[in-house]
Amino acid sequence: MTDIQPDWIAVDWGTTNMRAWAMSGSGTVLAEGASDNGMSKLTPEQFEPALLDVIGPWMQGPTTVLACGMVGSRQGWVEAPYAAVPCPVAREAFAQAPCKTPDLTVHVIPGIKQESPADVMRGEETQIAGFLELNPKWDGIICLPGTHTKWVHVSADEVVSFQTFMTGELFALLSQHSVLRHSVASDDWDGAAFDSGLADGMARPERIAARLFSLRAEGLLHGLPAAAAKARLSGLLIGTELAAAKPYWLGQQIAVIGAGGLSKRYVDALAAQSAPATQVKGDAITLAGLTAAYRRLKG
Amino acid sequence: MTDIQPDWIAVDWGTTNMRAWAMSGSGTVLAEGASDNGMSKLTPEQFEPALLDVIGPWMQGPTTVLACGMVGSRQGWVEAPYAAVPCPVAREAFAQAPCKTPDLTVHVIPGIKQESPADVMRGEETQIAGFLELNPKWDGIICLPGTHTKWVHVSADEVVSFQTFMTGELFALLSQHSVLRHSVASDDWDGAAFDSGLADGMARPERIAARLFSLRAEGLLHGLPAAAAKARLSGLLIGTELAAAKPYWLGQQIAVIGAGGLSKRYVDALAAQSAPATQVKGDAITLAGLTAAYRRLKG
Known about the structure:
homodimer; 299 residues; alpha/beta; Nucleotidyltransferase, domain 5; 6-stranded mixed β-sheet; transferase (chains A, B); kinase (chains A, B); ATPase_NBD (chains A, B); 2-dehydro-3-deoxygalactonokinase activity (chains A, B); DGOK_C (chains A, B)
């Protein structure tokens, strides 16, 4: 039992893990917690105990929790139905999760859907809201690199349209489960190989399945080092994505959300296309989005 | 111990399994055998016992074996160095595997490589040779659908060039290990969904990573049935491949080798592009290629 007295608790609950922050009313983080009890590991009944494992020590009487992410999916704790684009970035229709603990109230932020081309997001909408909190009146394209990278058109405080690419998942599958897994097994990184893969992917995206096999053949025939093969694989996949996402980023103001190396690669790749992008750290953004949602809830 | 007296034994030894045929000198199959001791499961010392498990009962004195496939790779029984394109379909440089059994002689057919764009094949060269045995003086494009689909330009009894696409492996990875695995879990097939995926893949191949995520979103938002999602996934991947392989197949005589449904899909897809292709059964082709190699060996 810690000695803090949070006014509310922010939770980012994804597929593979969850993070929680004990918050003061003025937006100060009083404590942080995390667990690997992601949505995919839990049945609906297991969400409340999994949450209490992390936030229990912070609770001192009635407690309000605001959560975003896959916790609100059909397989999650409570389904928070998608809002359809175009829709305001800041929405007020939260879903309330069923709780047995009398003092606990959990509100879940809904995701956003697009009917055609069919697309969905859960969690990213809160990052987008957070980014707009920190950058009021911002118009342009927000790119959120990850397992399922999203390109989002934001204008006049609304999400206009978006498109998701499975690029990150393809990279993981190919690196870990394909015939290429030995060819790309390296902790090093070859920036020049990334650049050449990126250029090839953008120039001839249709050749992706052939370029992939070439990585293996280049290793067999010409001794392509694993660090170069891995970086080239990433470049090929991101280049193919950038070729398709061009209608999103061409001539637009661009923000790339994410602190890690992957987001940096997107920024560098866009810079090489004369499309300067601002890189923004993800953690503070998520918390800003949850905080804005809490203010609307209390509003 | 069976009562047959083969003149030689044909072996097709791939990554995941091996098949063997006891052959008469006139080319009749006297017996067949198979095992799941593929190259990937064996250390170099284990190949000979694995072979004897299958062909031992057929041996009556000195025995000549002719083998093709991954058995001749660096990780196989004996490395049979690649011939470089352009090269004759029918070559005579076999590698001899080290054997402890005095009466056993095992010759391994080398694969074919292409320096640039880097590419390799092992096993398919024997199918190509078999096809040319059955279709003398044939010129055109041979497509060999599979885990790693190959497009091969054959002219004047030579392999001129080729290109390998990881399309089949991508389909398997996405069907079994990705976020799409539940969306596409079906034993049924939706031909119309395949056709529409094929058309989309050919028309905008760069969008492949976005189209993949759309399969999931279509399931969530619009209840896309699994049989349709699976067929559409296959169509998208094959369509993307056909877009890239167009310089191979456009305006050419085409043969697609393989008896199964996958090869039929390629034939249908090409027909939809006004590129008629002949479908040829794979088993007889492999055996014809091994038989032709045996004749050259006995020269």
